[in-house]
Amino acid sequence: MSTLYSTKVTATGGRHGQIRSEDGLLDMKLALPRQLGGKGDATNPETLFAGGYAACFENAILHVSRDAGLRFADKDVEVIAEIGLSRNDSGSFVLSAALAVTVTGVDQKKAAELVEAADKICPYSNAIRGNVAVEINVSVR
Description:
Layout: E1 9-12, E2 18-21, E3 27-29, H1 45-67, E4 77-87, E5 93-103, H2 108-121, H3 123-128, E6 133-140
Parallel strand pairs: 5-6
Antiparallel strand pairs: 1-2, 2-3, 4-5
Helix pairs in contact: 1-2
């Protein structure tokens, strides 16, 4: 399998530190969320993961839609990703994910079919499948 794209991000200081991509386009301070006892004055890994998952999943929906002969404008598909951090029974930290997908211009059945197909090709979905509890809710408008 050949790599289509690769990037590098360096983290220093853990959850209270800094991340910087090799191209410099991502250069951010990190902070522990207030809910975990931190200042909450900067972003955190879960927020970054939620943003990446939402954007990637939306793009996967657009991709499978084109393959199905459908064309959506950017505003016709919305994905909201929620990433949770908790502890499992053994005390280890684990993630959970919930996606709220809204599709305009199709019925509920077609929207669900598109989301199911997108879930199969989205690299984030494939990376966490079987390891992270994921709930996907689909609605139409």
